[in-house]
UniProtKB/TrEMBL annotation:
Signal peptide: none
Superkingdom per UniProt: Bacteria
SUPFAM superfamilies for the chain: ALDH-like (SSF53720)
Gene3D superfamilies: Aldehyde Dehydrogenase, Chain A, domain 1, Aldehyde Dehydrogenase, Chain A, domain 2
The protein's name in its UniProt record: Acyl-CoA reductase
Keywords for the protein's UniProt record, in alphabetical order: Oxidoreductase
Region (Disordered): 1-43
One Pfam family hit: Aldedh
GO terms, molecular function: oxidoreductase activity, acting on the aldehyde or oxo group of donors, NAD or NADP as acceptor
Chain ranges of the Aldehyde dehydrogenase domain: 30-477
Length: 486
C-alpha cells in the first residue's frame, strides 16, 4: 500500500519481558498480522507467571518511594513522557496502523491526544488534595488523599496510546505504580509506549507486560493488585468485576457500548446523515462511542436514508493513488467475521441491505460501509455492540418512540440526539440512562470531561479530574495535643 511505502520504517521494539523458562500464562508467542494484507507485523512473547510475579514485586518495591515523591516532580516526569511521545509520534502511529489497520493520520492524532492527556495530569496532579474538617478548636481534622498502591492497567487496541495515557497518567500522577498490559491486538504499540514512558521514571514504577486474555485475567485476579482499570469488551469487564469482588481491588471499567442516535423531526436530513456517517464509520466503526443503532423520525426517513447511503458510498477502502485512507480495515479477520455475522443475522430477520454488507474479496480484513434498514429491536445489530462500519436504521413514528426504544438497553455508555427542539434535547439528556449524552453532534466535548458508564458498560469515572479521585483513597486524620502531666 502507498501508505506503508511512504511511512517511516517500523521500529525494532524491545518487549520488556523477563523470560523464566516456565510455561507462559496464555501459551506461546503472539503473532500479529497486518489487517491490510495479512503480512506479519511481528511476534512478541507472552508474559510467564514468573514475569507477573517479578512485575508485582518491582511495583511493590517502588510504591513507597514513588508515593513520597513530590507531586510536582511526578508532574515533571509526566511532562517529559508527553514530550517523548511527541518525538516518537511517527513510530507509534505506524506501529498502530500496521497492527490494527487504523489510518496513520488518525493514529498520529491518538498519540498527540495522549500526550495532551499526560500534560493535563501533570498539571492536575499537584492540585489534587484532600480537605480540612471543622471540628474541636484544639484539634486538627483532615481528609487526605493517598495513592491506592499498584494499578493494573489493561488497555484496548482501537486507540491504544490515547487510552493508555488516560489510565497510566492518572495512576502515576497520584503516586501509584503500574503494571501495564496492552491489548494482544496491539502489543508492539503498547510495548513501545511503556518503554518510552518508563524511561523517565524510577525503576519499577511502570512495568510493561505483553500477553493475551489469559495474561490479563491473571493480572486482574491477582490479590496484589489494588486497582484494575480496564477499557475493552463487556465480557472481559464482567470477568474483572467477578475477580475483583474476591480480591478486594477497585475495578474501573469502560466496557462495550450500544450507543443510539436519535434523528428527530425538523432537522436537516443531509446534515443528520453526515453526523450519522461520522458516528457509524469513523475508524471503521471501531470506537467505544461509535453510533451502533439509529432511530429516525418517519417524516424525514426517506431523505435521511438516501443521504446516508451516499455517505457510505463515499467511504471506500484505501486509495493507493491518493495515499489517503477513506475506510481502513477492521482489526483482524476474526473481528470481521463477527461484524458480518451481525449483518447476516439482521438480513435473515428481515432487514434490507441498501449498501455494503457483503464480505469482500482480497487480502486483509476490509469491510464495506454498510447501511441496513427495516431493523427491529430484537435484531443483534440493535441489541449488541457490532463495533464495525454498520449503520442500523430503524424508522419510528415519534420522538417518544425513539426515546423509549433507545433507552431500552442494558448498556449505558453514550447516546446522541439530533433535534431542533430544546424540549426534546432536555428530555433526552434527562431520561437516557447513559454516561454521556451529546446533542446535535456525535463527537466532541470540552477537555476534562469524565463520564461514568452505566449498566454493563462499566463503572467508575474515566478521564478528567475525577479519575484522580478514583486512583486515590481517602484517609481521615484526627490530631489532638497530648496531655501533659501535672
Amino acid at each position: 500500500m502507498v501508505e506503508q511505502a511512504h511511512a517511516p520504517a517500523a521500529p525494532q521494539v524491545r518487549v520488556p519481558q523477563v523470560r523464566s523458562g516456565r510455561d507462559p500464562v496464555g501459551g506461546g508467542d503472539l503473532t500479529i498480522l497486518n489487517p491490510r494484507d495479512g503480512s506479519t507485523v511481528g511476534r512478541v512473547p507472552m508474559a510467564t507467571r514468573a514475569d507477573i510475579d517479578t512485575a508485582f514485586e518491582r511495583a511493590r518495591r517502588a510504591a513507597p518511594g514513588w508515593a513520597r515523591t513530590p507531586a510536582t516532580e511526578r508532574g515533571a516526569a509526566l511532562r517529559a513522557a508527553a514530550a517523548a511521545l511527541r518525538e516518537n509520534v511517527d513510530n507509534l502511529a505506524v506501529l498502530n496502523a500496521r497492527e490494527t489497520g487504523r489510518p496513520v493520520a488518525e493514529a498520529r492524532e491518538g498519540v498527540t491526544a495522549g500526550a495532551g492527556t499526560l500534560e493535563q495530569y501533570a498539571e492536575l496532579g499537584p492540585l489534587h488534595r484532600g480537605r480540612s474538617l471543622v471540628g474541636d478548636w484544639s484539634a486538627t481534622d483532615l481528609m487526605v488523599a493517598e495513592p491506592r498502591g499498584v494499578v493494573v492497567a489493561l488497555t484496548p487496541w482501537n486507540d491504544p496510546v490515547a487510552v493508555s495515557c488516560g489510565i497510566v497518567g492518572a495512576a502515576l500522577a497520584t503516586g501509584n505504580t503500574v503494571l501495564y498490559k496492552a491489548s494482544e491486538r496491539a502489543p508492539h504499540t503498547g510495548a513501545l509506549f511503556a518503554e518510552i514512558v518508563a524511561a523517565g521514571l524510577p525503576e519499577g514504577v511502570l512495568n510493561g507486560l505483553t500477553g493475551d486474555g489469559a495474561v490479563g485475567a491473571a493480572l486482574a485476579a491477582d490479590p496484589r493488585a489494588d486497582v484494575v482499570a480496564h477499557v475493552g469488551g463487556t465480557a472481559t469487564g464482567d470477568s474483572i468485576r467477578q475477580a475483583t469482588a474476591h480480591t478486594g481491588a477497585k475495578a474501573l471499567l469502560e466496557n462495550g457500548g450500544n450507543d443510539p442516535l436519535i434523528v428527530d423531526e425538523g432537522v436537516d436530513p443531509e446534515w443528520a446523515a453526515h453526523q450519522a456517517a461520522i458516528g457509524s464509520f469513523a475508524n471503521s466503526g471501531q470506537i467505544c462511542t461509535s453510533v451502533e443503532r439509529i432511530y429516525v423520525h418517519r417524516a424525514l426517513a426517506d431523505r435521511f436514508v438516501e443521504a446516508l447511503v451516499a455517505e457510505a458510498a463515499r467511504r471506500v477502502p484505501e486509495s493507493a493513488a491518493a495515499g489517503e485512507v477513506e475506510l481502513g480495515p477492521l482489526v483482524d479477520r476474526r473481528h470481521r467475521d463477527a461484524v458480518h455475522a451481525h449483518v447476516e443475522q439482521a438480513v435473515r430477520a428481515g432487514a434490507t441491505r441498501l449498501i455494503g454488507g457483503e464480505m469482500p474479496d482480497g487480502p486483509g480484513a476490509y469491510y464495506p460501509a454498510t447501511v441496513l434498514t427495516g431493523c427491529t429491536p430484537a435484531m443483534t445489530v440493535m441489541r449488541e455492540e457490532t463495533f464495525g462500519p454498520v449503520a442500523a436504521v430503524r424508522v419510528v413514528d415519534s420522538f417518544d418512540q425513539a426515546l423509549d426504544e433507545a433507552g431500552d438497553d442494558r448498556h449505558g455508555l453514550a447516546a446522541t440526539v439530533l433535534t431542533p427542539s430544546m424540549e426534546h434535547a432536555q428530555r433526552a439528556w434527562r431520561e437516557l440512562r447513559v454516561g454521556t449524552v451529546k446533542v446535535n453532534a456525535v463527537f466532541g466535548g470540552a477537555p476534562g470531561g469524565a463520564a461514568q458508564p452505566r449498566g454493563v458498560s462499566g463503572q467508575g469515572f474515566g478521564y478528567g479530574p475525577e479519575l484522580l479521585d478514583e486512583m486515590t483513597t481517602v484517609k481521615v486524620v484526627h490530631i489532638e495535643p497530648a496531655k501533659h502531666p501535672g
